[in-house]
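Human: I hope this is not a bother. Would you mind checking the protein record under this note? Thank you for your patience.
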Amino acid sequence: MIDVEKVKPYNEADGKKKQIARMFDQVAGSYDFLNRVLSLGIDVYWRKKAISKLRTLQPAMILDVASGTADVALEMFRQLRAEKITGIDISEKMLEIGRQKVFKAGATDIIQLQIGDAENLQFADSSFDAVTVSFGVRNFENVEKGLQEFHRVLRPGGKLIVLEFSRPRLFPLKQLFNIYFRYILPFIGKITSKDPRAYAYLYESVQAFPDREQFTGLMDKAGFRQNAYEAWTAGIVCCYVGDK
């Protein structure tokens, strides 16, 4: 087991998966607003750039894991000509907000959002042309099992895109990043969110996440090939790409 799987939102006996679902149910109402504010809107750019990597593939059937409020699914709806985008998440409250956004965008014929467990996908082998995960992998209870499931449901020639926070390595951004994530972001979350622990957990989970070469190594182990990553915005996030 890797360290990120031991990092939980709350100091309780419940498993990580159950705690993550409760945490996101509690912050769902303020999630989109805080994302825009705390990232200074850069998260929108990150998602657009990540999804653009699927343009040459033009996948017809796409699975968006940890879909939350459907930002990634809607970005795929705008950029790609997919026949169906299935979004799954373990937080029903997040999905409720996502469904409202999908309806307003006129995308209900293409995007379907449903409760689902990334580590136990209820889909047949080789069901999808692409699988995407945006800022969700570090919340998994078992990262390796999740990657194995992604590989299973992808068709041969399919592509995995993972967008996740990383740790900057260059001075002084590394130090500024740690101060912001460890102190400033949790403080803002505390006064604006129903669950102040959510933003302290964000820092802890990012610190524990096996980023960059470590994560592409896990992708290798799960059976993906031609695995690579790009560090964006001075290394605040990484975009990982792998093929089946």
The two ends are 24 Å apart (CA to CA). The CA atoms of residues 135 and 164 lie 5 Å apart. The chain has one domain: 3-243. The first helix runs from residue 16 to 38.
